[in-house]
Amino acid sequence: MEKVNSPLCLPFSRLSVVDTLGKGTFGSVQLVKEKTKGGVAALKTIPKESISKFMIEIQKQNVENNLDDNNKTLGTQALKEITAMKRVCTGQCSGIPRYVGDREDKNNYYILMDSVRGKSLRTIVSEIGPFTDINTIRSILAQILSTISFIHSHNVLHRDLSDNNILIQPNGTVKIIDFGCATLFDPNNIPECSPYTEYPEIDPDDINKKNIIGTLDFIAPEVLVDGCYSEKSDIWSFGVLLFYMVTGHYPFSDDEIDDVYETMYNILENTVVFYETDVIYEPLCDIFYLCCNPDIYSRVTIEGKLYI
Protein backbone atom coordinates (compact mmCIF):
# COMPACT_ATOMS: atom_id res chain seq x y z
CA MET A 1 0.00 0.00 0.00
CA GLU A 2 1.16 3.52 -0.74
CA LYS A 3 2.39 5.64 2.16
CA VAL A 4 1.11 9.20 2.05
CA ASN A 5 2.81 12.13 3.78
CA SER A 6 -0.35 14.00 4.67
CA PRO A 7 -1.12 15.69 8.00
CA LEU A 8 -4.53 14.06 7.80
CA CYS A 9 -3.11 10.61 7.18
CA LEU A 10 0.03 10.27 9.29
CA PRO A 11 0.02 9.52 12.15
CA PHE A 12 -3.48 8.21 12.81
CA SER A 13 -3.17 9.20 16.45
CA ARG A 14 -3.68 12.80 15.30
CA LEU A 15 -7.12 12.00 13.88
CA SER A 16 -10.35 12.06 15.85
CA VAL A 17 -13.69 10.73 14.62
CA VAL A 18 -16.37 13.40 14.30
CA ASP A 19 -19.24 11.45 12.76
CA THR A 20 -20.16 8.33 10.79
CA LEU A 21 -21.07 9.23 7.21
CA GLY A 22 -22.15 5.84 5.91
CA LYS A 23 -21.49 2.13 5.47
CA GLY A 24 -20.72 0.08 2.39
CA THR A 25 -20.20 -3.53 1.34
CA PHE A 26 -16.82 -3.86 2.99
CA GLY A 27 -16.50 -1.03 5.48
CA SER A 28 -17.67 2.26 6.94
CA VAL A 29 -16.92 5.91 6.18
CA GLN A 30 -16.30 8.38 8.98
CA LEU A 31 -15.73 12.11 9.11
CA VAL A 32 -12.37 12.66 10.82
CA LYS A 33 -10.64 15.77 12.10
CA GLU A 34 -6.94 16.52 12.52
CA LYS A 35 -6.58 17.38 16.20
CA THR A 36 -3.97 20.12 15.83
CA LYS A 37 -4.76 21.92 12.56
CA GLY A 38 -8.46 21.17 12.46
CA GLY A 39 -8.60 19.88 8.88
CA VAL A 40 -11.36 17.40 8.08
CA ALA A 41 -11.54 14.46 5.71
CA ALA A 42 -13.52 11.29 5.05
CA LEU A 43 -11.89 8.05 6.20
CA LYS A 44 -13.08 4.72 4.85
CA THR A 45 -12.11 1.74 7.00
CA ILE A 46 -12.21 -1.70 5.37
CA PRO A 47 -11.71 -4.63 7.80
CA LYS A 48 -9.48 -7.29 6.28
CA GLU A 49 -11.68 -9.87 7.97
CA SER A 50 -14.65 -8.77 5.87
CA ILE A 51 -12.65 -9.31 2.67
CA SER A 52 -11.44 -12.71 3.87
CA LYS A 53 -14.97 -13.87 4.71
CA PHE A 54 -16.21 -12.63 1.34
CA MET A 55 -13.38 -14.44 -0.44
CA ILE A 56 -14.15 -17.71 1.36
CA GLU A 57 -17.82 -17.43 0.40
CA ILE A 58 -16.94 -16.73 -3.25
CA GLN A 59 -14.63 -19.75 -3.39
CA LYS A 60 -17.32 -21.90 -1.79
CA GLN A 61 -19.87 -20.81 -4.41
CA ASN A 62 -17.36 -21.44 -7.20
CA VAL A 63 -17.00 -25.06 -6.07
CA GLU A 64 -20.72 -25.62 -5.50
CA ASN A 65 -21.89 -23.97 -8.71
CA ASN A 66 -18.96 -24.67 -11.05
CA LEU A 67 -18.47 -20.96 -11.61
CA ASP A 68 -15.58 -19.49 -13.52
CA ASP A 69 -12.49 -18.78 -11.44
CA ASN A 70 -12.70 -15.14 -12.52
CA ASN A 71 -15.38 -14.66 -9.88
CA LYS A 72 -12.68 -15.05 -7.25
CA THR A 73 -11.43 -11.60 -8.15
CA LEU A 74 -14.48 -10.19 -6.41
CA GLY A 75 -12.67 -10.89 -3.15
CA THR A 76 -10.16 -8.17 -4.03
CA GLN A 77 -12.81 -5.55 -4.77
CA ALA A 78 -11.68 -3.36 -1.88
CA LEU A 79 -8.21 -3.16 -3.43
CA LYS A 80 -9.72 -2.37 -6.85
CA GLU A 81 -11.45 0.59 -5.22
CA ILE A 82 -8.09 2.01 -4.15
CA THR A 83 -6.58 1.51 -7.61
CA ALA A 84 -9.58 3.14 -9.30
CA MET A 85 -9.51 6.10 -6.93
CA LYS A 86 -5.82 6.69 -7.57
CA ARG A 87 -6.67 7.02 -11.27
CA VAL A 88 -9.67 9.31 -11.15
CA CYS A 89 -9.87 10.99 -7.72
CA THR A 90 -6.91 13.25 -8.41
CA GLY A 91 -8.60 16.62 -8.05
CA GLN A 92 -8.68 17.11 -11.84
CA CYS A 93 -12.44 16.55 -12.00
CA SER A 94 -14.74 18.65 -9.83
CA GLY A 95 -17.33 15.88 -9.88
CA ILE A 96 -15.29 13.45 -7.76
CA PRO A 97 -13.98 13.80 -4.18
CA ARG A 98 -10.18 13.97 -4.10
CA TYR A 99 -8.23 10.91 -2.99
CA VAL A 100 -5.74 11.80 -0.24
CA GLY A 101 -4.07 8.49 0.50
CA ASP A 102 -4.34 4.95 1.77
CA ARG A 103 -2.69 2.85 4.45
CA GLU A 104 -3.07 -0.50 6.09
CA ASP A 105 -2.36 -2.10 9.44
CA LYS A 106 -2.78 -5.61 10.77
CA ASN A 107 -6.57 -5.50 10.76
CA ASN A 108 -7.73 -2.87 8.26
CA TYR A 109 -7.24 -1.02 5.01
CA TYR A 110 -7.82 2.74 5.16
CA ILE A 111 -8.72 5.17 2.37
CA LEU A 112 -8.61 8.90 3.08
CA MET A 113 -10.63 11.27 0.87
CA ASP A 114 -11.76 14.86 0.85
CA SER A 115 -14.90 15.36 2.89
CA VAL A 116 -17.85 16.47 0.77
CA ARG A 117 -20.87 18.30 2.16
CA GLY A 118 -24.23 17.72 0.55
CA LYS A 119 -27.23 15.43 0.26
CA SER A 120 -27.67 12.33 -1.84
CA LEU A 121 -30.07 12.42 -4.76
CA ARG A 122 -32.20 9.86 -2.94
CA THR A 123 -32.45 12.04 0.16
CA ILE A 124 -33.40 15.13 -1.84
CA VAL A 125 -36.10 13.34 -3.84
CA SER A 126 -37.52 11.70 -0.71
CA GLU A 127 -37.67 15.10 1.02
CA ILE A 128 -38.97 17.39 -1.73
CA GLY A 129 -40.18 15.05 -4.46
CA PRO A 130 -39.04 14.81 -8.10
CA PHE A 131 -37.18 17.67 -9.76
CA THR A 132 -39.36 19.91 -11.95
CA ASP A 133 -37.17 22.85 -12.96
CA ILE A 134 -35.70 21.94 -16.34
CA ASN A 135 -32.61 24.12 -15.92
CA THR A 136 -31.77 22.46 -12.59
CA ILE A 137 -32.35 19.02 -14.09
CA ARG A 138 -30.12 19.77 -17.07
CA SER A 139 -27.36 21.17 -14.85
CA ILE A 140 -27.32 18.10 -12.60
CA LEU A 141 -27.48 15.61 -15.48
CA ALA A 142 -24.77 17.44 -17.44
CA GLN A 143 -22.45 17.34 -14.43
CA ILE A 144 -23.09 13.63 -13.87
CA LEU A 145 -22.51 12.86 -17.54
CA SER A 146 -19.30 14.90 -17.65
CA THR A 147 -17.97 13.07 -14.60
CA ILE A 148 -18.88 9.66 -16.02
CA SER A 149 -17.01 10.62 -19.19
CA PHE A 150 -13.96 11.56 -17.12
CA ILE A 151 -14.09 8.28 -15.20
CA HIS A 152 -14.36 6.23 -18.40
CA SER A 153 -11.52 8.19 -20.04
CA HIS A 154 -9.26 6.77 -17.32
CA ASN A 155 -10.43 3.21 -18.09
CA VAL A 156 -12.49 2.91 -14.91
CA LEU A 157 -16.07 1.68 -14.58
CA HIS A 158 -18.04 2.89 -11.55
CA ARG A 159 -20.62 0.05 -11.66
CA ASP A 160 -22.83 1.51 -8.93
CA LEU A 161 -24.19 4.80 -10.25
CA SER A 162 -27.23 4.95 -8.00
CA ASP A 163 -29.26 7.67 -6.31
CA ASN A 164 -27.32 7.04 -3.09
CA ASN A 165 -24.00 7.70 -4.81
CA ILE A 166 -24.90 11.04 -6.39
CA LEU A 167 -24.21 13.85 -3.93
CA ILE A 168 -25.55 17.36 -4.55
CA GLN A 169 -23.88 20.18 -2.66
CA PRO A 170 -25.67 23.36 -1.48
CA ASN A 171 -24.09 25.36 -4.34
CA GLY A 172 -25.43 22.91 -6.94
CA THR A 173 -22.14 21.09 -7.57
CA VAL A 174 -22.64 17.37 -8.13
CA LYS A 175 -20.25 14.69 -6.88
CA ILE A 176 -20.15 11.00 -7.77
CA ILE A 177 -19.07 9.08 -4.67
CA ASP A 178 -18.34 5.53 -3.47
CA PHE A 179 -16.00 3.64 -5.78
CA GLY A 180 -16.49 0.45 -3.78
CA CYS A 181 -17.80 -1.40 -6.85
CA ALA A 182 -15.40 0.20 -9.34
CA THR A 183 -13.10 -1.77 -11.59
CA LEU A 184 -10.59 -1.13 -14.35
CA PHE A 185 -11.24 -2.07 -17.96
CA ASP A 186 -9.24 -2.50 -21.13
CA PRO A 187 -10.82 -0.48 -23.98
CA ASN A 188 -9.19 -2.86 -26.45
CA ASN A 189 -10.69 -5.94 -24.80
CA ILE A 190 -14.39 -5.26 -24.24
CA PRO A 191 -16.31 -8.40 -23.18
CA GLU A 192 -18.87 -9.82 -25.57
CA CYS A 193 -22.45 -9.72 -24.33
CA SER A 194 -25.49 -11.66 -25.46
CA PRO A 195 -27.61 -9.72 -27.98
CA TYR A 196 -30.93 -8.57 -26.55
CA THR A 197 -32.88 -10.84 -28.89
CA GLU A 198 -31.08 -13.85 -27.43
CA TYR A 199 -31.75 -13.17 -23.76
CA PRO A 200 -32.84 -16.51 -22.30
CA GLU A 201 -35.46 -17.15 -19.66
CA ILE A 202 -33.58 -16.25 -16.51
CA ASP A 203 -33.87 -18.07 -13.20
CA PRO A 204 -33.37 -15.45 -10.46
CA ASP A 205 -31.41 -18.01 -8.46
CA ASP A 206 -28.94 -18.27 -11.35
CA ILE A 207 -28.55 -14.49 -11.31
CA ASN A 208 -27.78 -14.58 -7.60
CA LYS A 209 -24.98 -17.10 -8.22
CA LYS A 210 -23.14 -14.66 -10.48
CA ASN A 211 -22.16 -12.45 -7.54
CA ILE A 212 -23.32 -9.34 -9.38
CA ILE A 213 -22.42 -6.13 -7.60
CA GLY A 214 -24.20 -2.82 -7.73
CA THR A 215 -27.74 -1.63 -6.97
CA LEU A 216 -30.45 -3.74 -8.63
CA ASP A 217 -32.69 -0.88 -9.78
CA PHE A 218 -29.74 0.57 -11.73
CA ILE A 219 -28.28 -2.64 -13.19
CA ALA A 220 -28.32 -3.15 -16.97
CA PRO A 221 -29.89 -6.31 -18.46
CA GLU A 222 -26.62 -7.62 -19.91
CA VAL A 223 -25.17 -7.56 -16.40
CA LEU A 224 -28.01 -9.75 -15.13
CA VAL A 225 -27.65 -12.15 -18.05
CA ASP A 226 -23.88 -12.35 -18.54
CA GLY A 227 -22.34 -10.39 -15.67
CA CYS A 228 -21.17 -8.19 -18.55
CA TYR A 229 -19.99 -4.79 -17.28
CA SER A 230 -18.89 -2.07 -19.69
CA GLU A 231 -19.08 1.67 -20.24
CA LYS A 232 -22.60 1.11 -21.53
CA SER A 233 -23.74 -0.46 -18.27
CA ASP A 234 -22.83 2.84 -16.58
CA ILE A 235 -24.80 4.65 -19.30
CA TRP A 236 -27.83 2.49 -18.49
CA SER A 237 -27.51 3.54 -14.84
CA PHE A 238 -27.38 7.18 -15.94
CA GLY A 239 -30.70 6.71 -17.74
CA VAL A 240 -32.25 5.27 -14.59
CA LEU A 241 -30.93 8.25 -12.59
CA LEU A 242 -32.58 10.62 -15.06
CA PHE A 243 -35.91 8.82 -14.78
CA TYR A 244 -35.72 8.79 -10.98
CA MET A 245 -34.92 12.50 -10.82
CA VAL A 246 -37.99 13.56 -12.75
CA THR A 247 -40.53 10.97 -11.51
CA GLY A 248 -39.39 10.15 -7.98
CA HIS A 249 -39.45 6.39 -8.61
CA TYR A 250 -37.38 3.75 -10.40
CA PRO A 251 -38.39 2.83 -13.95
CA PHE A 252 -38.31 -0.95 -13.54
CA SER A 253 -39.73 -1.31 -10.02
CA ASP A 254 -43.41 -1.31 -9.11
CA ASP A 255 -43.81 0.45 -5.76
CA GLU A 256 -47.04 -1.44 -5.13
CA ILE A 257 -45.42 -4.85 -5.57
CA ASP A 258 -41.89 -4.29 -4.23
CA ASP A 259 -40.63 -7.62 -5.58
CA VAL A 260 -36.94 -8.11 -6.40
CA TYR A 261 -37.68 -10.80 -8.97
CA GLU A 262 -40.34 -8.63 -10.62
CA THR A 263 -37.74 -5.87 -10.97
CA MET A 264 -35.32 -8.32 -12.61
CA TYR A 265 -37.96 -9.43 -15.11
CA ASN A 266 -38.92 -5.83 -15.91
CA ILE A 267 -35.26 -4.96 -16.57
CA LEU A 268 -34.81 -7.99 -18.83
CA GLU A 269 -38.09 -7.39 -20.68
CA ASN A 270 -37.62 -3.60 -20.75
CA THR A 271 -40.98 -3.06 -19.07
CA VAL A 272 -41.04 0.53 -17.82
CA VAL A 273 -43.39 1.33 -14.94
CA PHE A 274 -45.29 4.61 -15.38
CA TYR A 275 -47.79 6.25 -13.04
CA GLU A 276 -50.50 8.77 -13.90
CA THR A 277 -48.66 11.44 -11.94
CA ASP A 278 -45.42 11.04 -13.93
CA VAL A 279 -44.49 14.10 -15.97
CA ILE A 280 -41.40 13.75 -18.16
CA TYR A 281 -40.18 16.51 -20.49
CA GLU A 282 -40.14 14.88 -23.93
CA PRO A 283 -36.43 15.43 -24.73
CA LEU A 284 -35.53 13.88 -21.35
CA CYS A 285 -37.79 10.93 -22.10
CA ASP A 286 -35.92 10.44 -25.37
CA ILE A 287 -32.59 10.46 -23.52
CA PHE A 288 -33.89 7.90 -21.04
CA TYR A 289 -34.84 5.48 -23.82
CA LEU A 290 -31.50 6.02 -25.56
CA CYS A 291 -29.63 5.19 -22.36
CA CYS A 292 -31.89 2.32 -21.31
CA ASN A 293 -31.99 0.60 -24.68
CA PRO A 294 -31.96 -3.10 -23.69
CA ASP A 295 -29.71 -3.93 -26.64
CA ILE A 296 -26.21 -3.01 -25.49
CA TYR A 297 -25.00 -2.82 -29.10
CA SER A 298 -27.63 -0.19 -29.96
CA ARG A 299 -27.40 1.74 -26.71
CA VAL A 300 -26.14 5.30 -26.98
CA THR A 301 -22.59 6.21 -25.98
CA ILE A 302 -21.34 9.41 -24.39
CA GLU A 303 -19.49 10.11 -27.62
CA GLY A 304 -22.69 9.49 -29.58
CA LYS A 305 -25.90 11.48 -29.70
CA LEU A 306 -26.22 11.99 -25.96
CA TYR A 307 -26.89 15.67 -25.40
CA ILE A 308 -28.38 17.22 -22.27
TrEMBL record:
<dbReference type="InterPro" id="IPR000719">
    <property type="entry name" value="Prot_kinase_dom"/>
</dbReference>
<keyword id="KW-0418">Kinase</keyword>
<protein>
    <recommendedName>
        <fullName>cAMP-dependent protein kinase</fullName>
        <ecNumber>2.7.11.11</ecNumber>
    </recommendedName>
</protein>
<keyword id="KW-0808">Transferase</keyword>
<dbReference type="Pfam" id="PF00069">
    <property type="entry name" value="Pkinase"/>
</dbReference>
<dbReference type="InterPro" id="IPR017441">
    <property type="entry name" value="Protein_kinase_ATP_BS"/>
</dbReference>
<keyword id="KW-0547">Nucleotide-binding</keyword>
<feature type="domain" description="Protein kinase">
    <location>
        <begin position="15"/>
        <end position="308"/>
    </location>
</feature>
<keyword id="KW-0723">Serine/threonine-protein kinase</keyword>
<feature type="binding site">
    <location>
        <position position="44"/>
    </location>
    <ligand>
        <name>ATP</name>
    </ligand>
</feature>
<keyword id="KW-0067">ATP-binding</keyword>
<dbReference type="GO" id="GO:0004691">
    <property type="term" value="F:cAMP-dependent protein kinase activity"/>
</dbReference>
<dbReference type="InterPro" id="IPR011009">
    <property type="entry name" value="Kinase-like_dom_sf"/>
</dbReference>
<dbReference type="GO" id="GO:0005524">
    <property type="term" value="F:ATP binding"/>
</dbReference>
